[in-house]
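tool_log.txt
---
The assistant was asked to compare two proteins side by side. It first ran the structure predictor on the initial sequence, then on the second. Raw inputs and outputs are pasted verbatim so the downstream comparison step can read them without reformatting.
(1)
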Amino acid sequence: MHQPEPDSLDCVFCHILVGHAPATVVRQWPEAIAIRPRHPVTPGHVLVIPRQHVPDVGTAPAVSAHTMAAAADLAAELPAANVITSKGAAATQTQFHLHLHVVPRTDGDDLPLPWTPQQTARQTGAAR
């Protein structure tokens, strides 16, 4: 089982991995797990988390690759999805343990992303 590294003792994902914090695990791989987030943005939204504490996608490319492969397993089962991660606070990262969001999408789900027409319309007040 994963043991937290000294720099990860305050990491909520490390606490989940060692069983010290609750989570609903939906899938497991040797290098990663998938859990349900506390506040899903669409039905079926999951987080894919590496078992090794890695602060972000740019820190350990091999860990990032294994984590992406796990996320790709989940995304392959969906007709449409976003697979998203962030690196750094300026990019909206709030938990500094690498994690990928696998977000199932449907036509008309009205979930805006910053680079989509839905977000532009929402910002201008055109979409309601």
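(2)
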Amino acid sequence: MPITVTAPRGVLTPAGEREILPQLTAALAEAGGLAANPAFTAMVGGTVHILAPEHIYAGGVNRPVVMVELKLPDIGLPTIEARAEFIYAATDIVERLTVDGHDSNDTWINILNARDGAWGIGGNALSNADIAAALAG
């Protein structure tokens, strides 16, 4: 379940660049009710993309937007409440890991769902049932 963070250089603190993915992973597990499930955590990965500030736009203008994109199977975060919990937690994490003055309106969270069987690891397409079985142990 990849998490992609894209931020303009200088907006995330140096510690924030290192800590954002572990903290977002924990927030995802918490929102999904799987905080104590190591099989779930093992399925979460991600990247942090730091771009030149002049390469980040919102509303057609250059703006210091931090974008967090989460891609997961459609059984992940299955309710509006779970998705809202992740969005709130992710926004809070970005707020804590950015420089002073970062506006929370410049933090965008996007959750994308892969259809049943359209997600996999190691060349194996995993169905929702496969993932549920792995999480159940």
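---
observation on (2): The CA atoms of residues 32 and 76 lie 7 Å apart. Strands lie at 2-8, 45-51, 57-58, 61-62, 66-73, 107-114, 119-121, 124-126.
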